[in-house]
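Sequence, please.
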């Protein structure tokens, strides 16, 4: 079972990392409006014959002249992953991440795909029932999936099926590995008020810092450090991409007269890439609600949720940002 994590060492490690963050790429604001929302036009499920959604991920590099820029992307990615992994292990214990987390992720994925299948196959009898059932079904799915996933993945998926039914199964799981860990620090308000924040991004790490009233040339490092230190404690969200080596069976079935007709049948052993994410905490300390008095391990009242499968939504977002 997936156990949530805590974030212990942000404050004490921030001084050592702030100068490092300052050399990150300052990303352009990603304004969210009604015209910038991405959409999935066809069935989002990836078949075994389809190419990867993202062949080579366009990681953000540092924007300033730095020794980091001399390093190959693979080494830069390795460094960022070390920092992200270290954060998780320090705050959950080496016994939880990655081993216990991966075990829980495979069980959670099986349960989630069954819930997704049930939702996609549930008919709507009328317009009124459709609206009521959609709200009820979304509530059921929201325990396992993020609201964005339900809206941007499940919604188009159900629409693309028409009157067809689907079956998604993982009859055999062979292994699971951590593909990538993403860490975002800073206030969640940077998502809705991007003009007020600077995004310092490097590989899989991101920090949203409230903009200063003075120009970068006039701001001292001490002032920047104060802004960044505040950002570290103003919020946190962590995402983990898990690559599940499994037999994946996908069937899309329609009705022809009284018999069933298989429209799509895809069975193969392939990596299923599933992204799990924490809630976005309004304050970094809120990620922990307490500690076990015997073991000292964190106790939490939140759950991981699935936010993407096979980079489908991630690709759509990158295309929206003109990075693919």
């Amino acid at each position: 079972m997936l156990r949530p994590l805590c974030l212990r060492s942000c404050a004490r490690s921030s001084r050592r990392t702030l100068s490092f963050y300052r050399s990150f790429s300052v990303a352009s604001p990603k304004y969210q409006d009604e015209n910038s929302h991405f959409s999935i036009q066809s069935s989002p499920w990836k078949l075994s014959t389809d190419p990867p959604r993202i062949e080579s991920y366009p990681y953000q590099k540092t924007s300033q002249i730095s020794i980091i820029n001399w390093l190959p992307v693979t080494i830069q990615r390795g460094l960022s992953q070390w920092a992200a992994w270290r954060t998780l292990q320090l705050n959950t214990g080496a016994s939880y991440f990655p081993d216990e987390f991966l075990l829980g992720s495979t069980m959670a994925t099986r349960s989630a795909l069954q819930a997704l299948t049930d939702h996609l196959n549930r008919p709507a009898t009328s317009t009124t029932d459709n609206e009521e059932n959609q709200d009820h079904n979304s509530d059921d799915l929201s325990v396992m999936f993020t609201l964005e996933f339900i809206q941007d993945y499940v919604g188009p998926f159900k629409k693309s099926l028409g009157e067809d039914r689907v079956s998604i199964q993982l009859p055999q799981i062979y292994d699971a590995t951590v593909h990538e860990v993403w860490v975002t620090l800073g206030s969640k308000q940077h998502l809705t008020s991007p003009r007020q924040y600077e995004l310092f991004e490097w590989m899989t790490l991101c920090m949203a810092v409230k903009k200063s009233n003075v120009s970068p040339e006039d701001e001292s490092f001490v002032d920047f450090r104060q802004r960044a230190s505040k950002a570290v404690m103003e919020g946190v969200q962590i995402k983990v991409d898990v690559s599940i080596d499994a037999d994946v069976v996908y069937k899309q079935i329609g009705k022809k007269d009284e018999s069933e007709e298989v429209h799509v049948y895809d069975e193969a052993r392939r990596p299923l890439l599933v992204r799990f994410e924490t809630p976005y905490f309004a304050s970094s300390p809120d990620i922990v609600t307490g500690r076990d008095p015997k073991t000292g391990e964190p106790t939490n009242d939140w759950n991981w949720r699935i936010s993407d499968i096979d980079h489908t939504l991630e690709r759509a977002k990158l295309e929206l940002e003109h990075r693919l």
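The two ends are 35 Å apart (CA to CA).
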